Amino acid sequence: MKPNTESEFEEIFNIDEYPIQSFQSSIRSELIFEVRRQMSELGCCRISNFIRSETVIQMAEEARSLHEKTFWSTLEQNPYASEDDETFPKGHPRRFFSLRSNGFICSDLLPANSLLNQLYASDVLTHFVWECLEVDRPLYRYADPLASHPYSVMEPESEFPWHFDGNEFTISVLVQQADLGGIFEYVPDIRSPGQENYEKVEAILHGGEEGVRRLDLNPGDLQLFKGRYSMHRVTKIEGATTRYIALPSYVYDPYRMNQPHHSINYYGRATEAHYERSKVLVDGLTD
Ligand SMILES: O=C(O)CCC(=O)C(=O)O
Ligand SMILES: [Fe+2]
User: What is the widest separation between alpha-carbon atoms in the chain?
Assistant: First the structure.
């Protein structure tokens, strides 16, 4: 990954509106204050036009140019991307499988000079995300070579059912919007370390709407969310336009990666490191 330079930084982020690199700026402090407020109230936050409009257009071109490298999957998965476990009763969230049909352009397939690589390499961005999340520990980029900052690709009729992520936090940047559908829905903080909250999860899986929120992104917006704790999904894509979204991800533990089963289902493969690191104790939550 190429080290970030000031000029690249200025080319990617809309620093005229959001001077995230300027630690003395009151605009920056106010922005962080507002993001924190939304995160605690809504469990998710959107910062409009965070990416420069010219850059969003180039990122959409980048994603389209990598389209043929997409790993596609159409399969039934539970919210934890884990294998079926017959020790749980029928209907239990662990045994609730729904169809996912989407693709990923894995992070390790991005060309070295890709805009998404440059964006993710930014320490200023990582630090900004950390401050916005108001967590009590350092935050790291995700060590997972496939899932750290992929593009998710959803073609017409694709859908992404209710699930949790392996990593704690993601900042999504939509680069090409579907004509209709492709809306992000989530239930803020439905689980927490030590507390799976299966009853509530089950209610949502069976169509419950209590606590469900929706966020309709525009290209160039930045969305912060807590994918390990907030169950989320993307509604079915309608119309003829493919939806591309960049998913830079962050974690507490710089050693961890997705579980091999999860990695193979989502990204088509698991590396030796995925197997080696799969035994690391995390937070007690199911991946
Ligand atoms: O496409 C999105 O907005 C979210 C994708 C997602 O949840 C995931 O890749 O785990
Ligand atoms: Fe997710």
Answer: 56
